[in-house]
Design brief:
202 residues, mainly alpha, Arc Repressor Mutant, subunit A, 6% strand
């Protein structure tokens, strides 16, 4: 689950990451120093952005984990996903997924439904109320956080590409299947927009 802090810190008097990199260079190999700097940069950037994101989430009565599930359900052509898909794709432990769906269901943001072709499988289906909450939260995230990230558009693309390579090297996603799966998701979305929904649910 994302890092969360209620403490508001003032700007540090110096760049701790760069200072740490210099200390590492005096004692360790350059590859270790640069690797440490990558990790520390990502960690501190995560904490910075996550604090901003969580401010938005709190206003909408959500955690980011619950929002992420809602957002994916809201953009899926069938408005539904299996709990196992949520766990695997969003990298959330199965027990935590169950807790998330329980909470969202209690707040009438999602409902559980039987799978149309597998009686052993349960679907999470977003409700009209859940769709509105997800849309409102996304609007605020876009305007207050995502659009204001302090990098130019080319810099953002470059950073995303570099981090994709880092994630791929750590086996965070299936590199060989990724393009095909994303193409299928796009195809399903196009079918739904043409009013031709698929009867099956992933």
């Amino acid at each position: 689950m994302p890092y969360s802090s209620e403490v508001a810190f003032e700007a540090a008097p110096f760049d701790v990451v760069e200072a740490s990199r210099r200390v590492w260079l005096e004692r360790w190999e350059p590859e270790a120093a640069s690797g440490m700097a990558v990790f520390a940069s990502i960690l501190r950037s995560h904490q910075l952005l996550n604090e901003q994101v969580n401010d938005v989430m709190r206003r909408h009565g959500l955690t980011f984990a619950r929002y992420e599930v809602l957002a994916w359900l809201g953009t899926d052509p069938d408005s539904a996903r299996t709990l196992s898909w949520i766990s695997k794709s969003l990298r959330i432990p199965p027990a935590t997924v169950t807790d998330i769906i329980d909470r969202l269901e209690l707040e009438k943001l999602v409902r559980r439904a039987p799978h149309p072709s597998d009686a052993r499988t349960t679907l999470a289906v977003i409700t009209a109320r859940g769709r509105k909450v997800a849309t409102d939260a996304t609007h605020d995230l876009n305007t207050e956080v995502y659009e204001r990230i302090g990098l130019s558009e080319p810099q953002r693309g470059q950073l995303v590409e570099l981090l994709a390579q880092l994630r791929a090297s750590g086996n965070e996603f299936d590199v060989e299947r990724s393009s095909d799966v994303m193409e299928e998701v796009g195809t399903r979305g196009a079918r739904a927009r043409r009013g031709k929904r698929r009867p099956d649910v992933a």
